[in-house]
Structures are given as C-alpha cells and as structure tokens.
Amino acid sequence: QLQLQESGPGLVKPSETLSLSCTVSGGSVSSSSFYWGWIRQTPGKGLEWIGSIYYSGSTYYNPSLKSRVTISVDTSKNQFSLKLSSVTATDTAVYYCARHVLLDWIPTYLDPWGQGTLVTVSS
Amino acid sequence: DIVMTQSPAILSVSPGERATLSCRASQSVSSNLAWYQQKPGQAPRFLIYGASLRATGVPGRFSGSGSGTEFTLTISSLQSEDFAVYYCQQYKNWPQTFGQGTKLEIK
Fold first, then answer.
1. Phi, psi of A19 (to 5 degrees)
2. For residues B67 and B51, is the Cβ–Cβ distance under 8 A?
3. B107, B19 Cβ separation under 8 angstroms
4. Nearest Cα to B75, choosing from B20, B14, B28?
5. Which of A18, B39, B66, B95 is the most buried (most CB within 10 A)?
6. CA B52 to CA B75: how far, in whole Å?
7. CA distance A46 to chain B (A)
8. Chain B residues 9-68 with CB within 8 Å of chain A
C-alpha cells in the first residue's frame, strides 16, 4: 500500500525558504504512471495546489506561486521535495504531498495523500 | 483560473437520509472533476474521478454526476462515518483548483 510522509521544519522565519520533503513507501517515484504533487490548506484559502513533478523532472507549477516555488525529485531516495522562498505569514498552512495520477498523460486526481504537516511562518 | 464554487457551505442531514452536494465551475471542465472527503485532523481522501467514477473501496452509496459546469455528489443513505467536509477539484485546466468545501453535519 502506497504511503507518503511529509517532513521538514514546522517553523520558518519570514523571508526565509520553506523546505519540505515527501518520502514515498510502498511504491516508486520513478513510476511512469504518476506525477507527485504538493498541496497546501489554510482556513482562509482552503486547498491550493502548489505544483507537481514527474520522475524525469518535468514540472507543473501554480502560476500564483511559480516565482517562489521549486519542486525536485530524488529517485535514489524515493523522495520529492518542495522549496518555497521568501515566505510570509500568508504561507502558514498545512502542507500535503500526494500522488498525482496520470490519465491520458495528464495529471488528474490526487491519491493518496500524506498526513500533512503544519508549517508556521513567524519570527 | 477556473473557480470552483460549492454549495451549500454547510448541509445538515439526518443519518439514513440522502445528501446532495453541489459544485459549480466558472467555465466548462467537461468531466474532469474529482471529489474528496476530509475528516478533522486527516488528509483528504479521494472518492470520485471523471465526475462519476468511484475510487476503489468507496461505498456504493456515494455517486457523482454532472458535466460541463454543474456537478453533484450524492450520498444515498448517510452513515455516521460520512459526516465530514467534501471538496471538488477540477483537473481540466492548469492550475488545478478546488472548491471551498461543503461541511456535511449531523442534523
């Protein structure tokens, strides 16, 4: 059974870079059938898709965050990672990683999701 | 961006009754729509894709319908474990977007 687990600091200072990793178990990030995505959730904005990556390194990013986001994949560690630069309090959220299922070569629904990790931006 | 609007924000229904949740897209997404269930303190759980296709293991009381801009998630006979927040997601266009959710609560 595929499982995803987010890890990283729970507290980040304003203007710094948020860095999270997602470790995949029970499956491989090198699978040709999936992208791997990051989503965040806040009480105010709800669920927001951040971006997704293929094992080859091909990415899709949300234009609203694209200038600050980098998603990378490490197939040797079976992990993918998120970096969000120049964070502010508005980036405080629960961050989820998820498998992004390809249908007809298009990333579609997200299943399964990691348990999520709360990241607070505060000095 | 395609805006997904869910209604109502809160739906109060008694166990055993039918619940009907709506999701509207600001432009056509064809059938490129998924539904998720989220319980407090948990990650969203995938339920339906292609507007009407149930994920493996999802009970038959969950059904999705619609296409274009209007979609419905119906839960035919509510069980206690069904009370949660439900989200729709469109994957027709980038960026993929979610609705703001409908909270299904016990009446």
1. -130, 125
2. yes
3. no
4. B20
5. A18
6. 13
7. 6
8. 32, 34, 36, 42-46, 49, 55
CB A48 within 8 A of CB B98: yes
- The pairing of strands B45-49 and B62-67 is unpaired
Compute mean pLDDT per 10 residues along chain A, 123 residues long, and list them: 97 98 97 97 94 97 97 97 98 98 95 98 97
Bin A90: left if φ > 0, else alpha if -120 < ψ < 50, else beta: alpha
SS3 (DSSP) at B22: strand
Cβ of B100 within 8 Å of Cβ of A64? The answer is: no
d(CA A46, CA A48): 6
User: Which residue of A35, A47, A60, A103 is the best one to mutate when testing the B interface, meaning the one whose CB has the most B CBs within 10 A?
Assistant: A47
Q: Residue B88: pLDDT above 90?
A: yes
- Which are the contacts of A101, defined by CB distance < 8 A and separation ≥ 6? A33, A34, A107, A108, A109, A110, A111, B49
Q: Which of A48, A109, A113 sits opposite B34 (nearest CB)?
A: A109
Structure tokens at B71: 């979609």
Q: In chain A, what's the furthest Cα-to-Cα distance? A: 45
Name the token pair of A97: 């990683």
